[in-house]
């Protein structure tokens, strides 16, 4: 695994290999989500929280929480970044792939 840092809110290990679904999810994440949540979901100071964080483990934020966040936005409650607006440009299938990508990154970092 290669470590990632540079300007991120958290430091993570990247998995050696992503599943095909996670690779597609990464492309969608990079296009729509990374501008706020940072490359590889490590967060961006002043913009958005890291998703590779214990707060977003499946037992606290189930996969559906990601779909709901994209569709309806999220009121700020764990972080002080402000509310997340609903996002356009992602289908439900895209969000499912993005979630797969996030979950694989989380597992590579001991978040299960």
Please explain how this structure is put together.
The protein is mostly helical and 112 residues long. It has helices at residues 20-32, 34-37, 63-72, 92-108, and strands spanning 2-4, 12-14. Helix 3 (63-72) packs across helix 4. 29% of the residues are buried.
How are the secondary structure elements laid out?
Layout lengths: L1 E3 L7 E3 L5 H13 L1 H4 L25 H10 L19 H17 L4
Antiparallel strand pairs: 1-2
Biggest sheet strand order reads 1-2
Strand portion, in percent?
5-15%
Largest sheet geometry: 2 strands, antiparallel
* Straight-line N-to-C gap: 17 Å
Q: Which range best describes the helical content: under 10%, 10-25%, 25-40%, 40-55%, 55-70% or over 70%?
A: 25-40%
Q: What does the oligomeric state look like here? A: single chain
Number of strands: 2
* Uncertain residue segments: 1-6
Order of helices and strands: EEHHHH
Mean pLDDT figure? 93
Rough outline? globular
Briefly say what this structure is.
This protein is mainly α. It has 4 helices and 2 strands.
Descriptive labels:
112 residues, mainly alpha, 5% strand, globular, disordered N terminus
């Amino acid at each position: 695994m290669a470590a990632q840092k540079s300007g991120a809110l958290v430091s993570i290990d990247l998995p050696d290999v992503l599943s095909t679904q996670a690779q597609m999810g990464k492309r969608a994440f990079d296009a729509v989500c990374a501008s706020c949540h940072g490359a590889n979901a490590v967060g961006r100071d002043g913009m958005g929280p890291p998703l590779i964080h214990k707060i977003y483990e499946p037992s606290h934020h189930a996969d559906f929480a990601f779909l709901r966040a994209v569709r309806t936005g999220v009121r700020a409650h764990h972080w002080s970044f402000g509310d997340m607006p609903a996002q356009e440009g992602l289908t439900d299938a895209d969000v499912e792939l993005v979630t797969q990508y996030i979950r694989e990154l989380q597992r590579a970092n001991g978040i299960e």
